[in-house]
């Protein structure tokens, strides 16, 4: 049985893997094929039910073409999206006159 802290880390890691995979526009099957990790295991990982080894984390990072630190970083916001999403631009209102 996992400790509370380990269980929370697994959930966070799973959300991060799912978010990165989505940003890369990859299906679970495609990531499984690229990484050599089974689709079923990826589903367990993405739902926080799996506790992956370092070897699996390195395989996933390699398949996603990311340094492993990006999978393990505390904030998913630090992971840049590579998909073609429109850039949001904020304009300042400058009064005329």
Automatic annotation (TrEMBL):
Molecular function via GO: DNA binding; DNA-binding transcription factor activity
Keywords on record: DNA-binding
The HTH cro/C1-type domain, residue ranges: 26-71
Pfam family, any one: HTH_3
Entry GO CC: cytosol
Protein name, UniProt field: Transcriptional regulator with XRE-family HTH domain
């Amino acid at each position: 049985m996992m400790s509370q802290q380990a269980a929370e880390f697994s959930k966070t890691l799973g959300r991060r893997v799912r978010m990165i995979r989505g940003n890369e526009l990859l299906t679970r099957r495609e990531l499984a094929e690229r990484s050599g990790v089974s689709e079923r295991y990826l589903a367990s990982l993405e739902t926080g039910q799996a506790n992956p080894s370092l070897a699996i984390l390195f395989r996933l990072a390699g398949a996603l073409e990311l340094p492993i630190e990006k999978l393990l970083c505390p904030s998913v916001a630090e992971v840049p999206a590579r998909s073609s999403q429109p850039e949001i631009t904020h304009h300042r209102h400058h009064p005329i006159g």
